[in-house]
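User: Here's a structure from my thesis project, written as structure tokens. My advisor, Dr. K., wants to see whether a designed sequence matches the one we expressed. Can you design one independently, without my sequence as a hint?
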């Protein structure tokens, strides 16, 4: 974990990361160029060698450079951005491009421009892709959805007016019943707000609850889209470690004052643990002492395969500090952009006002169609079917990994969700890019866990083995089997190469 005292060290490693990344982007370091040794760069910048090595590890994990033991680290092919790339760093964004009149970005704009440069973008899709996030188009409940849309269109009102920014009342009523039944949640319809996916909920929370410089606690490793939303608005992130039981609440006491904590207690992303009741209470007590808000991201609780989902943090919250966030991106489609928030009563008015300013409200037609699916039972039937399908895929993946890799793989977080983490104990974290590349050559897309560790907190990287976040929602069991057998071949080739390098 990085306590607040370490912010300066994190700040310098983040600045160095951004600087090297910008030099790769603008071609100062072209593909194949050797970076300075960690020793000379550390001496030149007055940083510790560990800090520079951590930055290099991060750049390697993000696919910008390749590191080789005993040899110079080199820039990977294709790491530079095209000529029309965004400004290379916050300062350049502030000045505008050379020769152009200065077009000033706001402080938030400059931070977002800097963050865009850090993002290596999605790799091209492979023939077999163990990506986490997308769902299969063939799993979508097309008939039920079309029927609901048609019914909604037939009842279209004569007056097409703007609606309540909190969302369509029929949907909020149906959702209230659904959450009570499936999550044991009791809340008033007034506390529910429909948003354009959980991402909008996180963006609104960052805008309305966090001032620049405020400390926000996040899980490490964690969900990058959340971290980036808070960073964009100037939050200082304090990363708290995650173990087999979720967030290490014993690390919270050293952190204060904290404005907000973002957690995934029912299914930690990406490691998959659920937070036991004692830690839930400790988190709530700590937040009460800090007068901090907690965002509970309940993104995929529909997919618990053996046991029912835990009680929510919200249902244990007696001090109205929990903001519960959910999404339909995991059961219906991430393209619908439909999610919801359960807000503490005291926040309802300001969130509704901010939502109105952002986009008035979510699209009415899809909200009403979803309300019908929830009310007539077809959504519940669809979720039961999805759970069966995803569990079959998850079993196929666990089974194939165990058969093809045996002791070479350690599986974590397979009890629920749409992904698991595969660790390769014999391979160091720095070999993740090589494993990704060797798999890609065999037509298999795999996705390293490295980028989900916070860039300023890379101290764990040298100690941890290589790991992959493996999604299975897109793949049928027989395809999973083929993909894993090719991944096993890729792993063998990377292990052989790295043992030759060690001996040489
Ligand atoms: C941790 C987490 N939260 C939320 C989401 C869903 O985001 P959205 O509702 O914006 O599609 C995801 C999707 O991958 C996720 O991994």
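Assistant: Designed independently from the structure alone:
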């Amino acid at each position: 974990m990085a306590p607040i005292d370490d912010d300066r060290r994190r700040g310098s490693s983040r600045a160095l990361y951004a600087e090297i990344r910008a030099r790769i982007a603008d071609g100062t370091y072209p593909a194949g160029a050797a970076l300075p040794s960690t020793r000379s760069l550390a001496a030149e910048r007055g940083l510790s060698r560990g800090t520079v090595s951590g930055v290099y590890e991060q750049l390697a994990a993000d696919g910008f450079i390749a590191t080789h033991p005993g040899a110079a680290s080199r820039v990977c092919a294709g790491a530079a951005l095209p000529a029309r790339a965004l400004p290379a760093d916050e300062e350049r964004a502030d000045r505008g491009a050379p020769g152009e009149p200065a077009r000033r970005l706001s402080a938030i704009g400059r931070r977002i421009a800097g963050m865009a440069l850090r993002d290596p973008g999605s790799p091209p899709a492979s023939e077999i892709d163990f990506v986490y996030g997308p769902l299969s188009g063939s799993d979508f409940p097309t008939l039920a959805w079309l029927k609901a849309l048609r019914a909604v269109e037939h009842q279209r009102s004569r007056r097409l007016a703007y609606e309540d920014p909190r969302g369509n009342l029929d949907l909020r009523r149906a959702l209230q019943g659904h959450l009570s039944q499936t999550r044991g949640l009791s809340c008033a319809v007034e506390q529910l707000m429909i948003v354009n996916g959980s991402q909008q909920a996180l963006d609104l929370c960052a805008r309305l609850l966090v001032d620049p410089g405020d400390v926000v606690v996040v899980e490490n490793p964690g969900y990058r889209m959340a971290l980036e939303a808070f960073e964009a608005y100037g939050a200082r992130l304090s990363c708290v470690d995650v173990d087999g039981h979720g967030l290490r609440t014993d690390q919270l006491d050293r952190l204060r004052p904290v404005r907000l904590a973002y957690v995934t207690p029912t299914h930690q992303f990406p490691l998959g643990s659920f937070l036991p009741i004692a830690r839930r209470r400790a988190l709530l007590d700590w937040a009460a002492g800090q007068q901090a808000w907690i965002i509970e991201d309940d993104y995929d609780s529909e997919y618990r395969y053996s046991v029912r989902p835990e009680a929510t943090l919200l249902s244990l919250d007696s001090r109205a500090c929990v903001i519960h966030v959910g999404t339909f991106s995991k059961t219906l489609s991430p393209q619908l952009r439909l999610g919801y928030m359960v807000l503490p009563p005291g926040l309802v008015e300001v969130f509704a006002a901010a939502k109105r300013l952002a986009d008035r409200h979510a699209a009415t037609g899809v909200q009403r169609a979803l309300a019908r699916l929830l009310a007539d039972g077809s959504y519940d039937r669809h979720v039961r079917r999805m759970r069966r399908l995803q569990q079959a895929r998850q079993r196929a993946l666990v089974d194939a990994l165990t058969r093809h890799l045996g002791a070479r793989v350690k599986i974590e977080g397979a009890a629920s969700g749409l992904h698991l983490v595969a660790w390769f104990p014999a391979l160091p974290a720095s070999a993740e890019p090589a494993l990704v590349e060797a798999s890609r050559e065999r037509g298999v897309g795999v996705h390293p866990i490295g980028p989900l560790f916070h860039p300023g907190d890379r101290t764990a990287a040298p100690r941890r083995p290589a790991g992959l976040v493996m999604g299975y929602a897109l793949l049928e069991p027989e395809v999973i089997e083929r993909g894993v057998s090719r991944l096993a071949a890729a792993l063998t080739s990377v292990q052989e190469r790295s043992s030759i390098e060690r001996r040489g």
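When you compare it with your expressed construct, this may help: The radius of gyration is 23 Å.
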